[in-house]
From TrEMBL:
Domain Major facilitator superfamily (MFS) profile residue range list: 23-407
Protein's UniProt name: MFS family permease
Residue stretches spanning the membrane: 20-38, 58-78, 159-177, 183-202, 231-251, 263-282, 294-313, 319-341, 362-379, 385-404
Sorted UniProt keywords: Membrane, Transmembrane, Transmembrane helix
Membrane topology: Multi-pass membrane protein
Organism encoding this protein: Actinoplanes octamycinicus
Length: 410
């Protein structure tokens, strides 16, 4: 059956080459610019909502969950449309453009929580549309044996933007007298530049037109009948349920260490710096020893972060260790999970399959973020993080069984 085929490297693209494809570098540049924009907002948003607008942890948990999870189904829908139309770049461009426009939507929302929530949801809708087509373009332009390294290079470039974003936000706040609106304006202008780079410099991957039956809702649903894909999806969802999100991690660390609000954006900088340093080495390691062990190791690092946040131990060493482990968690999981999934999926439904896995994780994140916010509201921060730690040990154990029993990844 055509559905069972997995794309082979194009002529001239053999495993002997170590060069990263131009598509990967171009998409990395787009992600770098876009992440400067998005992390400018992400770095200040938790403090803006909780300290500035006085929202409770439960309300913040709901908004934080919406930020990633409420538009999760768009990842799957966008992936299917991109595969069906064979226009992955076009779908990604729509997503990047929507996110760019919503930076100005945050400005227009002012202090209205409903309008802020709507702008945040629309911004994440853009991310939901663009992520699967972007990752599919990476997998379709890279030999299967080098996907870990390719995603590592892309995520390193992406994280360079995440590293710079909070610093730019701090500079803008300092220059504007702590005016949050100025951050939204500058962020929107930078995001527009990222869209232009995508349109002008990223090539699409059209490929030969597959039979109509190979790209259909029936064929997409048939992906779940494949045991390796089903096990990977279930494992990814369970791991997503153990993730409480950056905002909560940084808020917990700030309260534990009694950090001044001006230092808050630098917590994201420290995490991004570690991610930037480890993304390529971890991606290369995943290609050599297997991607599932690296992903599981990343979530083990996340559990250690939870343990430290719930231990009450303070001091500069704790801050550094938490940020290093948290950045290591991202480096070991973000791109490596997509590299793990890529070879399991047929080329004609690559974007749909990646969107399916991303949708599962995003919905899981929505649930975990809302529940953690409610737990914080009911039991305080310490009780919430202790519950998250215990649950994380359970999900990691089950996921290890699911992922390590899969057939060896490419």
């Amino acid at each position: 059956m055509y559905l069972a085929s997995v794309e082979k490297p194009a002529a001239g693209r053999t495993d002997r080459t170590k060069r990263v494809a131009g598509t990967v570098l171009a998409l990395g540049t787009v992600s770098l610019i876009t992440d400067v924009s998005s992390e400018m907002v992400s770095a200040i948003l938790p403090l803006y909502l909780v300290a500035g607008l006085g929202l409770s942890p439960a309300v913040y948990g709901l908004i934080d969950g919406l930020y990633t999870g409420a538009t999760a189904l768009l990842r799957l829908a966008g992936g299917y449309v991109a595969d069906r139309a064979r226009r992955r770049k076009a779908v990604a461009a729509v997503g990047y453009g929507l996110s760019a426009s919503m930076k100005f939507g945050l400005l227009a929302a002012g202090t209205s929580v409903p309008w802020l929530s709507a702008a945040i949801v629309a911004d994440r809708a853009g991310k939901g549309l663009r992520t699967a087509p972007r990752d599919a373009l990476i997998t379709l332009s890279t030999p299967a044996g080098q996907l870990g390294r390719a995603f590592g290079v892309h995520r390193a470039m992406d994280t360079a933007g995440a590293f710079a974003g909070p610093l730019v936000a701090l500079a803008v706040l300092a220059a504007s007298g702590q005016a949050y609106d100025s951050v939204f304006v500058v962020s929107g202008c930078i995001a527009v530049i990222g869209v232009l780079v995508l349109v002008l410099f990223v090539g699409d991957h059209r490929g030969p037109r597959p039979p109509a039956a190979a790209v259909s809702l029936t064929a997409a649903a048939a992906l779940l009948r494949r045991r390796p894909i089903r096990m990977l999806l279930l494992g990814a969802v369970l791991l997503g349920l153990s993730t409480i999100g950056d905002g909560f991690v940084f808020l917990l660390l700030q309260r534990q260490e009694n950090l001044a609000s001006g230092w808050f954006p630098l917590l994201a900088v420290g995490t991004s710096l570690t991610y930037l340093a480890l993304a390529v080495p971890f991606g290369t390691l995943a290609d050599r020893i297997g991607r599932a062990p690296v992903v599981l190791g990343g979530y083990a690092a996340l559990l250690i972060v939870y343990l430290l946040l719930g231990s009450g131990w303070g001091g500069p060493v704790t801050v550094v260790v938490v940020l290093v482990l948290y950045g290591g968690y991202y480096a070991a999981t973000d791109g490596v999970l997509m590299a793990l999934a890529g070879p399991l999926l047929p080329a004609e439904l690559r974007t749909t399959g990646l969107g399916l896995i991303q949708t599962g994780q995003a919905l899981a994140y929505l649930v975990s973020s809302v529940l953690f916010g409610l737990a914080w509201q009911r039991w305080d921060a310490a009780g919430a993080i202790h519950a998250a730690t215990a649950f994380g040990f359970v999900t990691l154990s089950i996921s290890a069984i699911l992922l390590l029993r899969r057939p060896a990844d490419a």
